[in-house]
Amino acid sequence: MQAKAKTFTESARRAQIVAAAIETIAELGYTRASFARIAKQAKLSSTGLISYHFANKEELVRTVLEDVFREIGAFMAERMSEPASASEALRTYLEANLEFAAAQPTRMRALLNIFLGGALDYDPANERAALEPVERILRWGQESGEFREFDVHVMATTIRRSVEGPVFLLAGTPEPDLTAYAAELVTLFDLATRRQ
Amino acid sequence: MQAKAKTFTESARRAQIVAAAIETIAELGYTRASFARIAKQAKLSSTGLISYHFANKEELVRTVLEDVFREIGAFMAERMSEPASASEALRTYLEANLEFAAAQPTRMRALLNIFLGGALDYDPANERAALEPVERILRWGQESGEFREFDVHVMATTIRRSVEGPVFLLAGTPEPDLTAYAAELVTLFDLATRRQ
Amino acid sequence: MQAKAKTFTESARRAQIVAAAIETIAELGYTRASFARIAKQAKLSSTGLISYHFANKEELVRTVLEDVFREIGAFMAERMSEPASASEALRTYLEANLEFAAAQPTRMRALLNIFLGGALDYDPANERAALEPVERILRWGQESGEFREFDVHVMATTIRRSVEGPVFLLAGTPEPDLTAYAAELVTLFDLATRRQ
Amino acid sequence: MQAKAKTFTESARRAQIVAAAIETIAELGYTRASFARIAKQAKLSSTGLISYHFANKEELVRTVLEDVFREIGAFMAERMSEPASASEALRTYLEANLEFAAAQPTRMRALLNIFLGGALDYDPANERAALEPVERILRWGQESGEFREFDVHVMATTIRRSVEGPVFLLAGTPEPDLTAYAAELVTLFDLATRRQ
DNA sequence: TATGAATGAGCCTTCATTCAT
DNA sequence: GATGAATGAAGGCTCATTCAT
C-alpha cells in the first residue's frame, strides 16, 4: 500500500533495471526493447523480476522518463543558474541542451526512441512540460524588451525541436561538432527573437 | 524497374489497404498497427488478404510512404512553381507544408509515426531526401546574396523540424490556426536567414 | 461425372503441371513444393488452375507418381525383355534401375522426396507394387534352381532399397560412376542369391 | 561447448516435449508434426511452452535426434563390445539394428521420418556418420582376409539401407518376426562379403 | 477454361504477465 | 526478494482451396 518508501535493495534493483532499459531502448528502439532483452542487458535471470519491481511496462517506461528528465533537469539547473538576461538564458538553454546530448547520447536516444516509438499514447502534458522552461525565457525577454513580439508557443516549439535535431547524428558520426551546431542555433534564434 | 501491371481490382484493393494502413498507423502508431488491426479497419475478412497483396509488412509501409510522398510532392510542386527569390521560396515552402498538414492531417501523422516509430531502421538517406529541397533554397539565397552566411545543414534541419512540429497538435485541436502558425514561422526564418 | 475422357487441352495442361510439380518437388522437397511454387515453375498465373485440374494436392501427387512410374515401367520393360535366366534378369534389373537414375535424376529425386517427405500416409500397396517385379525374379530363380533358398520378401526389400541408395548422390556429385556402382551391386546380389 | 546447466524441472519438461515430438513425428511424419500437435500430444497448454524450452523447431528436432542417437549408441555399444572377427561384427551389427528397431519402433520411425522427411537440408555428413561404423567393419574384414575385395562405400550403403527397410513394417504388423528378418540379412551379407 | 481474388485455418515465434516456490 | 516456469494472446506470414467472372 505505502507508495513511497523503498528499501535500499529495491531502489538499487529498480535503478539497475532502469539503466538496462535505457541502454536497450537507446540501442534497439522502444518496440524491440522487450522485457526479455532488458533482462539480458541487466544480466537478470528472469523477466519476472522486472514485473516484480514495475507494475507493467508502462510504469517502467515512465520511470525511465523520470530518470532521464531528472538528469537533464539537474544538468540544466546548474548551467542556467542566474542568467543576466533573457537572451543569455536562451543562449545557455541551447548550448546546455546540446552539451547534454553530447555527454549523454544514450540517455538522449532512449528519450527520443520512447517518444517516437509509440511507447506512450501521445500526451500533451509531456510536451507542455518540455516547452514550459523555454516559454518562460521567451516571455521574460518580451517583457524586458529584449525580444520582439512573436507567438511564444510557436517559437518555443521551434526551439525545442531544434535541439532534438542533432541527437540522431550521434549514432552515425563519432565526433559530431555539437559546439559548432550550438553556435549556429544561438545565432539563428538570436536573430529570430531579438528586437530589431 | 517496371512493376508488373496491376489489374483494376487489385489496384483498388491495394489502395483500400493502404488507406486503412494510413488511418491505423496515424491513430495507433506504427507498432500497434498490426495486420489484424489494419484488416479490421479495412473491413477485410483476413489478414491473409493483406499478405496476398503485399509481400510483407515492409512493402506495405513502403507503399504507404510512396503514396503520401506522391501527394505531398504534387501539392508542393503546385505551390512552389517559379518562385521569384529564395526568400519567397522559403516562405512558400513553410506555408505549403503547414497547409498540407492542415489538409491531410491523417496522412501527415502516419508519415511521422512511420519515420519516428522505428518502422524503418534509421536511414540517413531518408533524412537527406527530406532536407535536400530546403538546402537547395538556402544555398540559392546565399549565392544570390539574399541570405547571410550560416551552416546550411543546421538551418535546413531546423526548418524541416519546425514544420513537423505542429502535426501532432492536429489530433487534439479541431481547427488549429495553422495559417497563423505558418506566418510566425515565415517571420522567424526570414529574420534568421536574411542578410542584415 | 465422366472420369476418363480428357480433352487435348486438359491433358496438355495436366502434363505441364505435373512436369512443374516434378521439377519443384525434386528441387525443394515435397514440403516446400507448394501450389504457389509449382505454379511459378509452370509459369501459371494462378494456383487456382492447379486446383481446377486436380481435385486436391493428393491427386496431383498421385498423378506425379503415376507419371514417373509409367516412365520407369517403360524404361524397364525395354531392358528386361526376354531375359534368358533369373540371374540375368536380376542383373538387368539392377543395371537398368541405376541407368534410369542416371538418365532421369530429377524424376528420381522427386519420387524419393514424395515417399520420404510425408506426402502420403504410408501405404503398403505402394511398396508391394515396387517389390513385386523383384519378387517375381527371385521366385523364378528359386524355382529354376539358380537361386538358393531365402526369404523372398527380405531379399526383394534389400534389393529395392539398394538401388534407391545412390539417388541422393546425384545431387552433390556431378558425374557419379553409376556404372561401377551397378557392377558392385550385381556382384553383391549374385553372391547373395546364387546356389552355392 | 558446455551447455548451460538445466534445472531438474527444465530437464523433465524438455524430456517430456522431446518424447511427445518423437511420438508425433513417428505417427504423422515431420511435416505434419507441428508445435500445435506436439503440444497437444504432450498435453501442454500452449505452443509457446515449446518455444520457451527450445529456441526453434530446428533445435527441438536436433534434440530429438541426439536423444535417439544416444539410445541407439548405448544399445549398439553393449552388443558390439569385443567382436572376435569382422564377420561376427557384421552379424552383430545387423542383429542389433533390427533388435533396436523391434524394441523401439516409435523412436526408429521418428528417426527415419526426420531424415527422410526433409526436416534437414540433406547433409552428406549425416550419411557419412551413419555409414562410418559399417565401413570400419568392412575394411577390417578386407584387411584380415575374411572379406573379399569390394567397394566399401557401396557395400556399406547397401547394408545401412537394408536395416532401415523393415522399420516401416512395424507400424502395421503387431509382431513382425524381426529375428527371422535379421537371420536372412546375416546370411545375405555373409555370402555377399566373404572370401569365396 | 482460365484468371485473379479471396478465404480461413494453420504455421512458428515473441511477448508481457502471473505464479508457485 | 528472486527465480524459473508457465500462460495465452498476438504477431506476420503461407497454405490449399473456393469462387465469381
From TrEMBL, chains A, B, C, D:
Residues 17-62 form the HTH tetR-type domain. Keywords: DNA-binding. It comes from the Bacteria. Pfam families: TetR_N. Gene3D superfamilies: Homeodomain-like, Tetracycline Repressor, domain 2. InterPro entries: Homeodomain-like_sf, HTH-type_TetR-like_transc_reg, HTH_TetR, Tet_transcr_reg_TetR-rel_C_sf. This is AcrR family transcriptional regulator.
